[in-house]
Amino acid sequence: MTIDRGLLASIALTELAGLLGVPATRDALRSGWYDSLRKPTFAPPEYVYGPAWTLLYGLQGYALHELWRRRETPAGRAALLAFGAQLALNAAWSKLFFGRRSTRAGLVAAVALLAAVAWSVERSRRVAPGAAAAMLPNAAWVAFAAALTGAIDYLEHGGRRIEGQRGRIAG
What is the value of pTM for the model shown? Predict the structure, then answer.
C-alpha cells in the first residue's frame, strides 16, 4: 500500500487551518458566553461541532490535493485561489464570532464564507469535479451555520418570537 504524501499534507494543512479558531472558541465556551446566547431550536448540541468540522476539513484536504495537482493551468490556479479564500474565511469565522464575541461579525463572516465556498465549488467543478464534490458537504454545513448564526444574531438583537426557556425560538 502506497501512502500519498501529498494527500496527507493537504489534509494536515486544512485540519491545521481548522485549529486556528480553537483557542477563541474554547475561551468563549469556557467563559459561558456561548451558553448565554439565545439559540433557535435547530441549534445542535456542542458535541456535534468538533467531529463535523474534523470531517469537513478532511474532505477539504482531499479537495485541496486534487486542486493542487491541477495548479499548472489558469483554471486550476483560479480554483486554488477560490479555495484559499474560503479556507481563510473559514478560519476567520471563529475568531470573529467567538473571539470578538460578536454575533453580528460572525454573521457577516458566515455570509461571506458561504459566498466563498460557493465560488470555490463552482471554480473547482471546472477542473476537478471530485474536489467540487468533496466540498459539497462543507457548503451544506456552512449554509446551515450561516442560518444558525443569523438566527442567533436575530435573537440577540431584538428577536420577539421567544417564549419559554431562554435560548429557544417558539413555533
Answer: 0.87
